[in-house]
Amino acid sequence: MLTQAPPENTAARLAVDIRRKVIEMSGSPNGVHIGGSMSIADLLAVLYGEVLRQPAGEGPPGEGDYLILSKGQASAALYAALAATGVIPEAECATYAEEDSRLGGHPMKRLPGVEFSTGALGHGLSLGLGVALAGRRYGHDGRAFVILGDGELQEGSNWEAAMAASHLGADNLTAIVDRNGWQISGRTEDCMSLEPLADKWASFGWRVRTIDGHDHDHIRQALGGPAEPGRPTAVIARTIKARGVPGLHDTKKSHAATLDEDARRLALAVLDGEPV
């Protein structure tokens, strides 16, 4: 059961804040991709809380680290992270998916902390590779992190980028696969098998780490350590879709869900570790 985090643990507190805001945004009549948003909450919490240098939206362009959310349908989690870290006002989360809101169903570049509009699946890794190569070309020491969905890996453009990244020695590029096992059509292994996924990345010349995507120690060790010279890094984060949300936990129906007030109250109670 998920519980409130101790005050000294920044990433743990961020993870709770991100999940809480995603649940609150799920009241939108347009629905939230709550499954994929909740499965990457811990990844975002460690990235924004401990790993990324220069919080998103701060500092001169071209400095610090880049984060690209290739699986743009999980935008609610990104907005929650930006709000929890003060990049955008927390109150703005209430405008999710409304007309003229900056918080669209997929992230848009006009929002602070969003470098690329994403959500057309299969493009994020190529964008991340471009950022990594540009940084190296201009002498920047920042890194590019790309969060990909596992079903998204069925797009061939990902593997073109993976092949190029290895060939070009883009060791400042890290691909993070949200391996929650689901895509919109069902289980990934039923739709088009991805396994052995770690071996596939390794065969393209990447350094591969397979982790528990909800274990903050695993995440920080995989993302915070030094790069291997000449090799990009692939982190396969095994996660649970809609983790902790009653009725949606590890199910297909969590893709685009609108939770009514009672469902949101129940989900928040579970998040807070209260009896339900």
Task: Jot down its keywords.
276 residues; alpha/beta; Rossmann fold; five-stranded parallel beta sheet; two-stranded antiparallel sheet; 10 helices; 36% helix; 12% strand; disordered N terminus
Notes on the structure:
The chain is built from 10 helices and 7 strands. Helices cover 36% and strands 12% of the residues. Helix 6 links the parallel strand 2 and strand 3. The chain has 276 residues and is α/β, with parallel strands linked by helices.
Biggest sheet record: 5 strands, parallel
Beta-strand content bin: 5-15%
Number of helices: 10
Question: Would you identify the regions where 5 or more consecutive residues have pLDDT less than 50?
Answer: 1-7
Number of domains: 1
Full CATH superfamily name: Thiamin diphosphate (ThDP)-binding fold, Pyr/PP domains
Provide a concise account of the structure shown.
This protein has 276 residues and is an alpha/beta fold.
Write the layout of secondary structure elements.
Layout: H1 10-25, H2 34-39, H3 41-51, E1 66-69, H4 75-84, H5 124-137, E2 144-149, H6 156-167, E3 173-179, E4 182-183, E5 186-187, H7 188-191, H8 197-203, E6 207-212, H9 216-224, E7 233-238, H10 261-271
Parallel strand pairs: 1-2, 2-3, 3-7, 6-7
Antiparallel strand pairs: 4-5
Helix pairs in contact: 1-3, 1-4, 1-10, 3-9, 5-6
